[in-house]
Automatic annotation (TrEMBL), chain A:
GO terms for cellular component: plasma membrane. This is Oligopeptide transport system permease protein OppB. The lineage of its organism: Bacteria, Pseudomonadati, Pseudomonadota, Alphaproteobacteria, Rhodobacterales. CDD domains: TM_PBP2. Its main location: membrane.
Length: 309, 538
C-alpha cells in the first residue's frame, strides 16, 4: 500500500508539468489579452505594462520563469485583474471560503442522501420508497441556479430569516443557503445511487448466505451490506466533492461568498493568465489528492481491490 | 504677467462657504442613528491605488479615500479639494495651484505639494506601468509622453513644488479644460513613506494611509470593503456618514432582491426593469443622464465597398428609429442620439443637426431615396453586411431590432455576429469587421473626450474615419477659450459624413433608498463623494 501511494504521488509531477505547459499555451491561443480593453492602451503604455509582467519575453521564457517561480518561491505570479494582489493572495483568501461551504454541502449530501437511499432500499416498493424516489427526482430537477433564487425568496424576502448573501467571516447564517443550493441535486443523486446499489447488494449471494446463517437483520445491513453498497456512492462523490470545494461559479456569484469559483470564470473573461493557471494547478492537485484518497478508501472497503494494489 | 483664470473668483468665493460642498443637512432633519451607507458593486475592484485604479467602482472608493486638488460638487462643477485655487499663465501653459495648509494624511502628516509631485511622477513611471499613464499624457503635462516611453527620467515631468503649499504644472500645449481633469483619481496624491515601507501591499487595511474623508478599515476581496470616517480629514466636522460598505454582488437580479430586503441602500437596475420599478418605487428608482454614448461604427478602411458611399451610411442611419430602440427596447430612460457627444456634456449644447429634426417617416423616405441613388434597394443590388457586437442581451436586442428595421424599410440583409468581449475588442481593433457596436464614456466632462475619438490619429478610432477638417477643428479646440462653436462644426460634419451611427446617450439606472440624501443627481459623470451624503431616519 505504501509503495502504491508513493508511485501515485510520483506521477503527479509529470502530470502537472504537462498540464501547465498545455494550459499555458492554450490560454494564449484565445484572442485578446489581459490588457485588451475598450480604451486600448497607447503603445508606450502597453510596452511598459508588458515589461512589468515579463510578457514582452518569448513565450518559452515566460513559461520557464513561471515554473521556476513556483518551484523555488511557491509564487504563482501576479493577478492582472486585481492589481494589488498576487494569485497566492487570491487563492489564500478565496479557497478557505469555498472549502467551508463545499464541506458543509458535502456533509448535507451524505448525511441526508445515504440514509434516504438505505431506507428506500430496505422498504422497497413501500410508501417510504416512493416518497424518497419522488423527493429525489423532485430535487434533481432543481439545479442550483433554480433553487438558489427560491431559497432567497423564501428565507430572505418572505421570512427574513437568513441574509441574502455575503460571507461575513463564515458565520453559519451565511453558509446555510449556499450549502443547500449547491448540494440538493447531488443529495438526490446520492440517495438514488445508494438505493440502487443497496438493493443489488441485498440480493447478492453473500447476503443470502448471511441470512441463511440466521444473522440478525441489523448485523446483515451494517456489517455486510453497507460497505459494498457504498462503493458506487463513493465513486460518484469523488469528483462531486472536488467540484464542491473548488467552488461553483454560480453559488459564488449569486451568494457573493467571495469564493474562488468566481475567479475561474472572471479569469477566463479577463484573460488573467496567471490566475487561470494557478487555479488549474490547484484544481488538479485537489482532484489528484481526492482520487488517491478514494482509491485507498476502496482498498479499505473492498478486499478484492486491496489485494490488487 | 499672470492673470487669474475666470474660475478663480468663483473658487475663492466657494472656499468661504465650505458647507456648500460637504453633506448639506437642512435644519430639523431627523438623521438615522446608524450612519452606514451600503451599496452594491458588480465586481472586485481593480485596485485602491490612485495611480493604478482603472475601474469606475474602484475610482468611487479611491475618491473617498484620497482627495485630489479639486473635487466635484453636486452639479459636477469643480470645487476646492486639497487646492484652494489656481492661477494660469498668459500662454495657458503654466498652472499654479495653492494648497490648503490644514490638509492631513490619516497618520497626521501634512499633505504637501511634494505628495502630488511624487504621485504624478509615479503615474508616468514605466516601472509602475500604470495602465492609466495615458491619462497623464492626455493632460498634456510636459515630458509626460517621453517619460512613459522611457526616453526621459521621471524627474523631468512638468510638475514641481516650490514650497509645501504651491504646486506648479507645466503643460506641453494649452488645455482649456485642464483644471477639470484634476478631479480624476490618477492625479490624487500618494504617501511615499507608506508605499516605500509596504510595497505592493500598501493599500491593505492597516497599511494604507490616505488623505480623503474616509480610511479603508476592512477589505475582503470579492465580498466586501468598509471605509470609515477619517478623523484627520480637514473637513471632518462636516462629514455625516460614519461608514460606507461595498458588497460585491455579481448578479444584478440578486442585487435587486437584496435591495428589497434592505441589505443594500443602492443597487443597479437590471436591464428592462426600470419602468416597472419606477411604478413600484417612484421615489427610489432613478434614471439619470450619463456621460456615455452608444453607436455603430462603419469600417471605412477594410469594410465592404458600399460603406465608402456616404449615401449608404446616411441611409442606414436615417432608417433606425431611435425612439423605438430607447422607449420600447431598452426602457431605461436613455436619450435618442443624433450626435456623437451626449447633450449632458458640460458646455455642449446639442447642435441642430438636420436629420434630428425630421420625423421618422421623413427619415425613412429619405433613407430609401439615398439608398436607391447609391444603387441599392428594390431596383438595384441587395445591400448586405455583417453587424458585429459583443455577447450581451441588450446588445443583441438592439442588433435584432436594427436589422429588422433595415430589412423592412430598405431591404438590407444583415448577418448578426456576436463575440466574447475580448475577442470582439481584438476583432474590432484589427478592423476585421464591417459594422460594429461601439460605446464610449467620457474621461472628463468636456466634448473633446468624445470627439477626439473620431480624429485620424486617435488610437480608439476603430472605423478609421479620417477627415482633415475634423482633425483641424479638434486641434484648434485644444487651445481655444471657447471651443463650443468648433464642436458644433465637428458634429455637423459628422452628421453629413456619418462615419458612425449614434444610437443613444446612456443613463445611469439605479435604486437608491429614500433614506440616503445628497446624491448628486445632476452630476453626469456620477462622481459622488460619501462625505456629501447623509442618511435620514426612516
Amino acid at each position: 500500500m505504501f509503495n502504491y501511494t508513493l508511485r501515485r504521488l510520483l506521477t503527479v509531477i509529470p502530470t502537472l508539468l504537462v498540464l501547465i505547459v498545455f494550459s499555458f499555451y492554450l490560454m494564449r491561443l484565445a484572442p485578446g489579452g489581459p490588457f485588451t480593453s475598450e480604451k486600448p492602451l497607447p503603445p508606450a503604455v502597453m510596452q511598459n505594462v508588458l515589461e512589468r509582467y515579463g510578457m514582452d519575453q518569448p513565450l518559452y521564457v515566460q513559461l520557464w520563469t513561471y515554473i521556476k517561480n513556483i518551484v523555488f518561491h511557491f509564487d504563482f505570479g501576479p493577478s492582472f485583474a486585481q492589481k494589488d494582489r498576487t494569485v497566492n493572495d487570491v487563492i489564500a483568501q478565496g479557497f478557505p471560503v469555498t472549502l467551508t461551504y463545499g464541506f458543509w454541502s458535502a456533509v448535507f449530501v451524505l448525511v441526508l442522501g445515504i440514509p434516504l437511499g438505505i431506507v428506500a432500499a430496505l422498504r422497497h416498493n413501500s410508501i417510504w420508497d416512493y416518497t424518497m424516489t419522488g423527493l429525489a427526482i423532485f430535487s434533481q430537477i432543481f439545479p442550483n441556479f433554480v433553487l438558489a433564487p427560491i431559497l432567497v425568496l423564501l428565507f430572505t424576502l418572505s421570512w427574513g430569516l437568513l441574509p441574502g448573501g455575503g460571507w461575513n467571516g463564515g458565520q453559519w447564517e451565511y453558509i446555510v443557503m449556499p450549502a443547500i443550493a449547491l448540494g440538493t441535486s447531488y443529495m438526490a443523486g446520492v440517495a438514488r445511487l445508494t438505493r440502487g446499489s443497496m438493493l443489488e447488494v441485498l440480493n447478492a449471494p453473500f447476503i443470502l448466505t448471511a441470512r441463511a446463517k440466521g444473522l440478525p437483520e441489523r448485523v446483515i445491513i451494517w456489517r455486510h451490506a453497507l460497505k459494498p453498497a457504498l462503493l458506487p456512492t463513493l465513486t460518484y462523490m469523488g469528483p462531486v466533492f472536488v467540484y464542491m470545494i473548488t467552488g461553483s461559479v454560480f453559488i459564488d456569484v449569486f451568494f457573493s461568498t467571495g469564493g474562488i469559483g468566481q475567479d475561474f470564470i472572471d479569469g477566463a473573461y479577463s484573460r488573467d493568465y496567471s490566475m487561470l493557471l494557478g487555479l488549474a494547478i490547484l484544481y488538479s492537485l485537489l482532484t489528484f489528492a481526492l482520487n488517491l484518497m478514494l482509491d485507498l478508501l476502496y482498498a479499505w472497503i473492498d478486499p478484492k481491490v486491496r489485494s490488487s494494489l | 504677467m499672470k492673470y487669474r483664470s475666470a474660475i478663480v473668483p468663483f473658487l475663492l468665493s466657494t472656499t468661504l462657504m465650505t458647507a456648500a460642498f460637504a453633506a448639506d443637512v437642512p435644519e430639523g432633519t431627523q438623521l438615522a442613528a446608524d450612519q452606514t451607507f451600503t451599496y452594491r458593486v458588480l465586481d472586485e475592484f481593480s485596485s485602491f491605488d490612485p495611480q493604478v485604479v482603472e475601474d469606475v467602482n474602484g475610482s468611487e472608493v479611491v475618491r473617498d479615500l484620497f482627495e485630489g486638488l479639486y473635487n466635484q460638487n453636486a452639479d459636477g462643477e469643480i470645487v476646492p479639494g486639497v487646492a484652494l485655487s489656481h492661477t494660469v499663465s498668459e500662454d495657458n501653459m503654466t498652472y499654479t495651484f495653492t494648497l490648503r495648509d490644514d490638509a492631513r494624511w490619516s497618520d497626521g502628516k501634512p499633505v504637501t505639494a511634494g505628495d502630488f509631485v511624487y504621485a504624478w511622477q509615479r503615474a508616468v513611471n514605466p516601472e509602475l506601468a500604470s495602465p492609466y499613464a495615458w491619462y497623464m499624457e492626455l493632460m498634456s503635462i510636459q515630458n509626460g509622453a517621453a517619460i512613459i516611453a522611457g526616453e526621459k527620467p521621471i524627474t523631468d515631468l512638468g510638475v514641481s513644488a516650490p514650497d509645501d503649499h504651491t504646486l506648479v504644472v507645466q503643460l506641453s500645449q494649452p488645455l482649456p479644460y485642464f483644471a477639470k481633469m484634476v478631479t480624476h483619481a490618477t492625479t490624487f496624491p500618494s504617501p511615499k513613506w507608506v508605499i516605500e515601507e509596504h510595497g505592493q501591499e500598501w493599500t491593505r487595511p492597516g497599511n494604507i494611509v490616505s488623505n480623503g474623508a474616509y480610511v479603508l478599515t476592512e477589505h475582503v476581496p470579492k465580498e466586501r470593503s468598509v471605509r470609515e470616517r477619517n478623523e484627520m480629514y480637514w473637513d471632518n466636522d462636516k462629514t455625516v456618514l460614519e461608514r460606507v460598505v461595498t458588497l460585491v454582488i455579481g448578479d444584478e437580479a440578486q442585487g435587486l432582491t437584496r435591495w428589497r430586503a434592505g441589505e443594500v441602500d443602492k443597487t443597479d437596475i437590471p436591464s428592462g426593469q426600470y419602468p416597472t420599478l419606477k411604478e413600484e418605487f417612484p421615489d427610489q428608482a432613478y434614471a439619470l443622464p450619463r456621460l456615455c454614448n452608444y453607436y455603430m461604427t462603419f469600417n471605412l478602411k477594410d469594410g465592404p465597398e458600399p460603406f465608402q458611399d456616404v449615401r449608404v451610411r446616411q441611409a442606414l442611419s436615417y432608417a433606425l428609429d431611435r425612439d423605438v430602440i430607447v422607449d420600447r427596447v431598452l426602457q431605461g430612460g436613455q436619450f435618442p442620439a443624433y450626435t456623437f457627444t451626449p447633450g449632458a456634456t458640460d458646455g455642449f449644447e446639442v447642435p441642430e443637426v438636420d436629420y434630428a429634426n425630421m420625423t421618422q417617416a421623413d427619415r425613412d423616405a429619405k433613407a430609401k431615396e439615398l439608398l436607391a441613388e447609391a444603387g441599392y434597394g428594390p431596383d438595384g443590388d441587395t445591400l448586405s453586411f455583417t453587424y458585429l457586437y459583443n455577447t450581451s442581451e441588450s446588445h443583441q436586442q438592439i442588433a435584432i431590432v436594427a436589422s429588422q428595421m433595415w430589412k423592412q424599410k430598405l431591404g438590407v440583409e444583415v448577418t448578426l455576429e456576436n463575440q466574447e468581449w475580448k475577442v470582439f475588442l481584438e476583432t474590432r481593433g484589427n478592423q476585421n469587421f464591417e459594422l460594429a457596436r461601439g460605446a464610449w464614456c467620457g474621461d472628463y466632462n468636456e466634448a473633446s473626450t468624445f470627439l477626439d475619438l473620431l480624429t485620424s490619429q486617435s488610437g480608439y478610432n476603430d472605423g478609421k474615419y479620417s477627415n482633415a477638417r475634423v482633425d483641424e477643428l479638434m486641434a484648434e479646440a485644444k487651445s481655444s477659450q471657447d471651443a463650443s462653436p468648433l464642436y458644433f462644426d465637428v458634429e455637423a460634419i459628422l452628421s453629413q459624413d456619418m462615419p458612425v451611427i449614434p444610437i443613444y446617450h446612456a443613463s445611469t439606472n439605479m435604486m437608491l433608498s429614500d433614506q440616503i440624501m445628497g446624491w448628486p443627481v445632476n452630476n453626469v459623470e456620477q462622481n459622488w463623494y460619501a462625505k456629501d451624503l447623509y442618511k435620514v431616519a426612516e
